[in-house]
Please model this.
Amino acid sequence: MSTTDRELRVGMVGYAFMGAAHSQAWRTVNRVYDLPARVRMAAICGRDPEKVADAADRLGWESHTTDWRELIARDDIDIVDVCTPGDSHAEITLAALAAGKHVLCEKPLANTVAEAREMTAAATTAQAAGIRSMCGFNYRRVPAVTMMQQLIAAGRLGKIRHVRAVYLQDWIVDPQFPLVWRLQKDKAGSGALGDIGAHIIDLTQFVTGQRIAGVSALTETFVKQRPLPGGSSGLAATGPADGATAATGEVTVDDAAVFVARLDGGALATYEASRFATGRKNGLRVEVNGSLGTVVFDLERLNELEFYDATLPAAEQGFTRILVTEGDHPYMSAWWPPGHIIGYEHSFTHQMRDLVEAVATGVDPAPSFADALQVQLVLDAVTRSAELGSSWTEVEPSLA
Ligand code: SOE
Model:
């Protein structure tokens, strides 16, 4: 639907769950939003020649390759979208920035603080040449989450006192579920902490505008040995028995992480990230209590925001369920008439919308790599605190 002739040509590395989610968003974004540039899905890259060819066909990419260096070297690629496991984020991103490509990198930004720092420094250098970088914390772009941020920024909650955040899944409760890449530290960096804890760390820092300044944490690996996988992708959808072999290997990441935190604006916060919350499939819930009110977001009801306005007369106070589907709610004007709900995949379309707009108009998109480094610093502090028996661990500002 774009009214411009300007093209932004995308090359994506990775074709599994996130690759599919991003492809869907790249395919859709210009059909829904009127943007200053049109996206061309120029190339997709993956390690397996047959699978990448199939992915190109299924997901709508014009060409495919098994060599990400070749993809980055192409003159007809403007944006590199990194959807690989964390162990290759830094290498691919640094090469892409050095080649003058804009970068979208999936979360968490990297597997270590050192890598995240290097990526942030490279992004800052590239910025001077007009190269943009963004980290894919997609949940910021759920309209109800964006609205939560706007309400808090407008002062509707007053002084923030408490943040309560959980992200709960249950896809590895079965001890026979194989040792997929998400359960290996050298590939994923950490377990539930980096995979889903990173989302609630980013989301709460985003909506409150406050930084996590210190933490005290506990982590646990409940099942320490698992069957080696036969070649599965690492997601619940593949099922416990998928390709598992008789041999076992060590789980080298956390299954769950819980921590308390102080935010730099004075709020107290609690966080829980677990893959062992039986019955919870993708349960992300954040509650923020302020001196003037409370807001609650629950991903399983993502079209809604609960709001308690304590400035109303006492007789009228109570939790209001706001259906975030009006045309003047964030991102919603381009979708359906009021009351016609949207889903998980729309958060990615909104992310691409903001990225395309930023690149085409020459502004820096958010979350920046510095924002993502801030999350990485919290992940690192949580890990260190847990290793030292929950000792209080300060988190430095990424832009210090
Ligand atoms: C798997 O646990 C996962 O797909 C994460 O990697 C995503 O970031 C999250 O959105 C859903 O769960």
Remarks:
- The chain has two domains: 7-138, 139-368+375-386.
- Residues 17, 169, 195-196, 282 surround alpha-L-sorbopyranose (CB under 6 Å).
- The two ends are 43 Å apart (CA to CA).
- The chain has ten helices and 17 strands.
